[in-house]
Amino acid sequence: MIALSCGLGVAHAASGTIEIGMIADMTGPAALSGQHKVDGAKLAVDEINAHGGINGKKIKLIVEDDRGQNQAGVSAYQKLAANQNIVAIIGSIRSTIVQATLPYVARYKIPTMIGGTDPKLTHVGNQWVFRFRPNDTYASATMAQYAVKTMGSKKVAILYDTDAFGSAGNQLLKAALVKDGAKVVSDQGYTTATRDYTSFLEKIKNSGADTLATYMTNSEDEAQMLKQLRQLDLKVKIIGSTSIATAVCIQLAGSAVDGTYGVSDFVADGNDAAKAFTKLYVAKYHSQPDVFGGWVYDAMNVLSRVIAKDGTAPAAIQKGIRAVKGYHGVEGTYNFDANGDGLHGYWVVKMQHQKVIPIKYVG
Question: What is the pLDDT of residues 227-268, one digit of tens each?
């Protein structure tokens, strides 16, 4: 287990700091994406502390490695929750890890921010969970509508990760495509961190699909699949869930990502807050930010404002986040509902010249 501390590290809440925990893929198959998450959180912490912290107290960020695995994620969450100085936890972006940690969130009663987009995660009666990304109900509907009505897709092949995120997304996407008039001619699941997609791509080719729609959890997997698809010269239109529009996918896929479409909740020039965040992120880390850094940057800023106003008691933070309306973050405008969902829409984007080009926002 790896742990690190950010900020000034000058003792805990009682003597001058407010401790916030976070789990992230610091090792494992999605470590590149995990680094973007850590960098986004650190950027927010450094900004807040540079402006005096929260009511004069500096934030101390404590990060535990979830290795992109459910059991490691549970262990990391439990370690953070057992620290009585930690007042809130930023959980995983991966629905399968969030799902595994939910019982512990309920047991410890610590306000927990999540990025997992499986709609069910905030619909199981756990009042301590708050989602800082739009759920897959919006993503799947936006993908299907754009594919059918704008891209002209009639025969669609779906490739999805069989984890909680991909499986839930696949069901929603199939229903949305059929509702919009398309036929699903191939529906295949793979396991996370698959390296060879040849057999999946051959079946897609033989299905007669005119479009490939992907619901892939890891950006690294999406990049690997795209490179193999180009090598096979498979002629299909492509639209993907958010992983296709991430900095890691673009970095690893290179030109193989060009010409694809996707949905994303973070767009670098999507609003004034995103533009300012992107400028700071590039200056500090010399790389483009994506959703992994964006949602935790917003989570940290919302937490700091709620704690400044309502204090550090778990129940006060819980009540304070639920009351947040109209907060303009880098991912959009947050209006938390009774389930703990803060955002309710996605961007349609196109990847061109290895950059994310926004097309339109569907809210």
Answer: 999 999 999 999 999 999 999 999 999 999 999 999 999 999
Backbone angles phi, psi at 205, to 5 degrees: -60, -45
pTM confidence score: 0.90
In sequence order, the β-bridge partners of residue 237 are 211
| C-alpha 220, offset from chain centre | 14
**For the chain, how are helix, strand and coil distributed in percent, rounded to 5?**
45, 25, 30
d(CA 295, CA 217): 16
Alpha-carbon distance of 242 to 213, in angstroms, equals 12
59 has which bridge partners? 18
Quick check: helix, strand or coil at residue 246? coil
Q: 97 — phi, psi (to 5°)? A: -75, -40
Three-class SS state of 262 = strand
Contacts of 355 (CB under 8 A, 6+ apart): 250
- Tens of pLDDT, residues 74-129: 999 999 999 999 999 999 999 999 999 999 999 999 999 999 999 999 999 999 99
Q: Which residues of 227-247 are buried (b: 16+ CB within 10 A; e: fewer)?
A: bbbbeeebebbbbbbbbbbbb
Give the single-character DSSP code of 341. B
